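Hi R.,

Here's the chain you asked about this morning:
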Amino acid sequence: MAIKRDDLTIQHPEHLHEQSDGSTRKQCALERAAELREKIKEYLAEKDQIQTGFDLVNEYAAARSKILDVLGASDEDWSNWKWQLRNRIDNEEMLSHFVELTDKEREEISEVSQSLRWALSPYYMALVMCDKPHGSVWMQSIPSKLEVTDTHGSEDPMAESWTSPAPGVTRRYPDRMIINVTNRCAMFCRHCQRRRNIGAKDADKSRAVLEAAVQYVRDNEEIRDVLITGGDALLLSDKTLDWLLGELDSIPHVEIKRIGTRTPVTLPQRITPELCAILEKYPPIYINTQFNSPLEITPEAKEACDRLVKAGVVLGNQAVLLRGINNHPNVMKKLNQGLLRLRVRPYYIFQAKNVKGTTHLIASIDDGLEIMEYLRGYTSGLAVPTYIINAPYGNGKTPIAPNYLLDKKDNHILIRTWENKVIPYETP
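And the predicted structure, written out as tokens:
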């Protein structure tokens, strides 16, 4: 939403409460309440049309049943995260058992497969089957020919290879760093910033690499915050995770451990009681996940998040702004409000990085700013993340926001409110 300065009128706070018609304060409050209700009328009319996974329980059950039948599997298999990984759908022939593909789509998916790996868990396949063709979960998981015809962007837009001072380490900030532990994912997102690392097969980093990364942390006392990521960090074995978290926990200057994972979204079966028992041993642990579509908010995702919260994990969400998926204010609002009900705090909205082959998924910055305009004030602050652009070449996260500070002179400022009112403000 573009803000037109011609529409802005300076309002003086000392006069805001005055009513020329002599209305009572209560009447004024009632009128204000009616005015506020009118401001979300559009969203209230539309929100029920924006479906979440909770709205598709019957459709999901049918999709799940079909997948189990095709794969010759049981309900017990479905609940086993290792079975889910072993049975990822990763070719057009298998995919055609679950969704209707045209001959052209089959050819294009096969063509993409020659150079770019793709796969999705049976669980996420069920979500695709519940969605409309080429809907929000389809676009995240099923290859498009545009991925191989698009020449825009870079394979490594964050220049991670230039910010790795030790094996498995990425460092861009003074007091924190990343340990990259695996290339494995339950579903290879088509917008992935690290698609160059996916390779031809799953591969965890060796113990030697992990030990070198831990030693780097030990040798640099300014590091207080370590992010374990990948790929998907929670696809490491329980044994390896227990060892790695224990090593980091034993370093006096490491204050918090963070884990980057999409398993609550793409493989909630991974969040087992055994895993949660490990996480509970090494507080504080913060997990940032990536819900991008309201359809990804399912009963199984909720169960996974509940287990993590009960284990003392603090949950946040880092959505990626994606064209045709979530680049609409009402969709993002529905997503963020749904996440809060899962006890997942919306943390960031990321502008999608300029990764080669992903231009068709990159939404405009104007879309991002419009979303922020329609979140601030229109929903609780807890549901308003920070909109972030990652500066190219590893120069770090840069927050982008609508302009609310219009003028500043000494202790006098001019602010624009969420309602587009301009109000003078004076600091003591």
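The chain has 18 helices and twelve strands.

Let me know if you need anything else.
M.
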